[in-house]
């Protein structure tokens, strides 16, 4: 058995701007386990918002490789070990959990979604993200995405001219649309902006307020004319009860919660509390990380899994996207192979 940890630089096709920062590239950390001619993979895409860097994630992976059980099917044992080592989830936990699920499904000779008993036909289409830019530029990118077959867009907001951005995009794009200000609004601005954009057929607003502002979310829930979905406000399944009743849905990210196993628990908890679920990703991920989420997409209401579609140099092919929908191969595990 051979294990490898390596870093990969992914470059975004266009500068990707949200309310917090602009990104042109992203360094992710790949962990691989080779045994009996098979290679299982997991990926960590660190997020500085959660105190992560490629250096810290790599160090965490190097110290935690020993947690992987010898038995490829001992997923419950690994989950207990990862929960103890990474109680708040995170990218390093995600990489190891993903690798383990890839290895398990490969050992059984089936794609991961089949190992989990899921129907790939039930996966929702993925949205395509339009980062902050000048109104004309965002409108042009929205139109280009529609031409590529995407019928739902996630539009980043959090600029001074949010309403003008939405209005301009609607001049070029008539499909489904959600908006995400990445916690850039306060309550007053959220109510005012939502009142102004509701006429443009927005499906929901993602993380309008700072994650810890639960009182604000509760009031916004009462006053908003659009559904509210939260991202950073919910990391693990234990966070779900605190937002139940004050939001309409949550965004589950494997890199945030710690992998496939905690994501499945989050999805179940959300549905048990009557919340809808979106599967999301970080601004740049390779097809290894995206595939891990895509294989559990049949369980959710929305998918926003375009991190590999935003970069120019994804080194892998796994679950492809055609006309905005996932196309699953019959390759075993994640189905990830070098491009």
Architecture overview:
This protein is α/β, with parallel strands linked by helices and 339 residues long. The chain folds into 2 domains: 2-113, Enolase-like, domain 1 (2-Layer Sandwich), CATH 3.30.390; 114-338, Alpha-Beta Barrel (TIM Barrel), CATH 3.20.20. It is built from 12 helices and 15 strands. The strands form 4 sheets. An 8-stranded parallel sheet has the order 4-5-6-7-8-9-10-11. α1 (54-64) crosses α3, α2 runs antiparallel to α3 and α5 packs parallel to α6 (162-172). The longest helix is centred in the N-terminal third of the chain and has 18 residues, at 91-108. It is globular and about 60 Å long.
The number of helical segments is 12
What strand line-up does the widest sheet have? 4-5-6-7-8-9-10-11
Give the radius of gyration.
19 Å
Low-confidence stretches: none
Which CATH class of the largest domain applies here?
Answer: Alpha Beta
Tell me the number of structural domains: 2
Main β-sheet: number of strands, strand sense, barrel status? 8 strands, parallel
**Under the CATH scheme, which architecture of the largest domain would be assigned?**
Alpha-Beta Barrel
CATH topology of the largest domain: TIM Barrel
Brief sketch in words of this structure:
By secondary structure, the chain is of the alpha/beta class. The protein is built from twelve helices and 15 strands.
Descriptors for this entry?
3-stranded antiparallel sheet, 8-stranded parallel sheet, single chain, Enolase-like, domain 1, 339 residues
SSE topology sketch:
Elements: E1 2-17, E2 22-35, E3 38-44, H1 54-64, H2 75-85, H3 91-108, H4 112-115, E4 128-130, H5 135-147, E5 152-156, H6 162-172, E6 176-180, H7 187-197, E7 202-206, H8 214-223, E8 228-230, H9 240-243, E9 249-253, H10 254-257, H11 260-272, E10 276-280, H12 287-294, E11 302-303, E12 316-317, E13 320-322, E14 325-327, E15 337-338
Parallel strand pairs: 4-5, 5-6, 6-7, 7-8, 8-9, 9-10, 10-11
Antiparallel strand pairs: 1-2, 2-3, 12-15, 13-14
Helix pairs in contact: 1-3, 2-3, 5-6
């Amino acid at each position: 058995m051979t294990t490898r940890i390596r870093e990969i630089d992914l470059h975004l096709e266009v500068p990707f701007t949200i309310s917090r920062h602009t990104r042109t590239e992203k360094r992710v950390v790949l962990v691989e386990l080779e045994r009996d001619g098979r290679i299982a993979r997991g990926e960590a895409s660190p997020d500085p918002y959660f105190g992560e860097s490629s250096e810290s994630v790599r160090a965490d992976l190097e110290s935690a490789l020993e947690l992987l059980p010898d038995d490829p099917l001992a997923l419950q044992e690994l989950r207990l070990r990862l929960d103890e080592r990474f109680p708040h989830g995170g990218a390093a936990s995600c990489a190891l959990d993903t690798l383990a699920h890839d290895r398990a499904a490969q050992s059984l000779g089936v794609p991961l979604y089949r190992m989990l008993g899921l129907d790939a036909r039930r996966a929702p289409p993925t949205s395509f993200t339009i980062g902050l830019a000048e109104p004309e530029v965002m409108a042009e990118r929205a139109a280009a995405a529609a031409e590529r077959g995407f019928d739902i867009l996630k539009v980043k907001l959090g600029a001074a001219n949010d309403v003008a951005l939405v209005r301009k995009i609607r001049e070029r794009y008539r499909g489904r649309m959600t908006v995400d200000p990445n916690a850039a609004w306060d309550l007053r601005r959220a109510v005012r902006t939502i009142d102004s954009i509701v006429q443009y057929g927005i499906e929901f607003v993602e993380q309008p307020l700072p994650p810890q502002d639960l009182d604000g979310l509760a009031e916004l829930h009462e006053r908003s004319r659009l559904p509210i979905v939260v991202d950073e406000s919910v990391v693990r399944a234990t966070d779900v009860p605190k937002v139940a009743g004050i939001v309409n849905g949550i965004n589950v990210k494997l890199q945030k919660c710690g992998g496939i196993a905690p994501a499945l628990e989050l999805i179940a908890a959300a549905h048990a509390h009557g919340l809808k679920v979106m599967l999301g990703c970080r601004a740049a991920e390779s097809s290894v990380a995206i595939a891990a989420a895509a294989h559990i997409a049949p369980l959710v209401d929305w998918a926003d899994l375009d991190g590999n579609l935003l970069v120019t140099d994804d080194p892998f092919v796994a679950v492809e996207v055609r006309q905005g929908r996932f196309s699953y191969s019959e390759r075993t595990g994640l189905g990830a192979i070098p491009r």
